[in-house]
């Protein structure tokens, strides 16, 4: 018995020694920490593979979060990330320029925008009324009392407030002033309301958001709603086209004036605003004006490895990176945009002229 | 001088004699600090005003109450269904018993989001059990029943394992004596086996309850509303930031500390009575 125990210990020790030796003799790799929006998981994991092949000395660490959470990891929890990439470019100025690090500097002071997406209505073949849905009646079908509609929490996730934007735009587009209330608003104990004044629709989200109708299924992230869609507990939900296609679900394309995916329709999207009625919203001014879906990324000012982060962004904006994005149905913006070129690292400045 | 030499010698001897205890105490202190410092820091360093606000916030109180009683119902269900299994595993041998025992531990190691999705694909409306329950009006999405099955799945192994160990410790000869004195198997279980294993079973039930209270990943897949406290903390963090999330966590920690210290105390007292 004792001999067995000894040999096990010896074995473990040898293992430890061999492993520690490995890491010491192997190539010294630097680590690049990327906090990414959930909807970037698929393209970024492909980019990771290609990027690491091209840069064998860099080890990319992808950490997916909801966009707001990704930023809070840095600004509230003190995580030192090298890149933050979110599904809504607005969030970077909103949450990172205004929050200061201990030395008084903001967490970031520039933002690069290179890719878009669009909202579609996801469903499956077993969804109620799936056989009759089309781009003229979808908003009526999702409002039917027996249809289970999935909604991503607008307080937590970009898909959530963008869904409300799309519904607000649809209300004007289909000339149906009660569309927002019928589809989602009146299904909560404190309703989500919408009001149109001077052609601008304002959708207001109350502080307490608790569904009273079992046919409205609220979740913190769109991924969970897609699981519920597949299990038959949700009939329809609005989500990013790329994510829906990656999951192989059925979807209905929405008109360009509603789907937030057409950068040329930016002025039309301004006709909707989503306002969170919070009194205690600590670090974010919770008013989201309608804008096209544009992804944003930055290198936080407290990044540990900014030089590799620059290489990663160059790769994302380069041919290979954009080809991956295109194959993932997250179309590229030509040319990419930066809101503050003078603050960029020199190696990135050349990309914006 | 002589006194100090004597003192040093006795101290040295004492240290030699109690070396084990001293060493173990140092290690114990380290692990205790590791557990307690983060919790204390959360409770005592959270913004007083926000903490006071949270104490009076009905959403927070309702959520904590919901979490406690959902986990309690879960523990009760686990007790009814888990104790018989624990008894069979402790007292009987059957083919593939080792496999069964290994499978019981699986819910502990499976990532809890995956556990939630696995449950959804059994209790979801498109699937058999979901269809049956739906027909009798029980829904598992956004409902108490959803919270309970999620908690049950991830926490019942704690009860089964603890009860199994408890039953194993009961001397079979005592049961046999009872049988020869004319007790029925049911009477033996109720009067002899169960009372002797009671402390392990209670402690397992308590562990199961505790594990249920803390569950997040599996619950959030099935039920976002009504909101259990772990989800409320997450939601507060996401929408308001740390200052609003920490007080909720602090209150949960305080409530649970009181409950668990109370229970340990009762269990301890029972031991004295035995």
Low-confidence stretches of chain A: none
What Rg of chain A is obtained from the alpha carbons, in whole angstroms? Answer: 23 Å
Number of strands of chain B: 0
Gross morphology of chain A: globular
Number of domains of chain A: 2
- Secondary structure: helix percent of chain A: 25-40%
CATH topology of chain B: MetI-like fold
Secondary-structure arrangement, i.e. CATH architecture of chain B: Orthogonal Bundle
Q: Give the count of helical stretches of chain A.
A: 13
Helix percent band of chain B: over 70%
The DSSP helix count of chain B reads: 14
SS elements, strand count of chain A? 15
| Average pLDDT, all residues of chain B | 91
State the CATH class of chain B: Mainly Alpha
Report how far the terminal alpha carbons of chain B are from each other: 52 Å
What is the correct CATH architecture of the largest domain in chain A? 3-Layer(aba) Sandwich
The H/E string of chain A reads HEHEHEHEEHEHHEEEHEHEHEEEHHEH
CATH topology of the largest domain in chain A: D-Maltodextrin-Binding Protein, domain 2
Q: What would you call the structural class of chain A?
A: alpha/beta
User: Radius of gyration of chain B, Cα only, in angstroms?
Assistant: 24 Å
| Strand content range of chain B | under 5%
What are the main properties of this structure?
heterodimer; A: 353 residues; alpha/beta; D-Maltodextrin-Binding Protein, domain 2; six-stranded mixed beta sheet; five-stranded mixed beta sheet; 13 helices; B: 274 residues; mainly alpha; MetI-like fold; 85% helix
Summarize the structure.
The complex is a heterodimer of chains A (353) and B (274). By secondary structure, chain A is of the alpha/beta class.
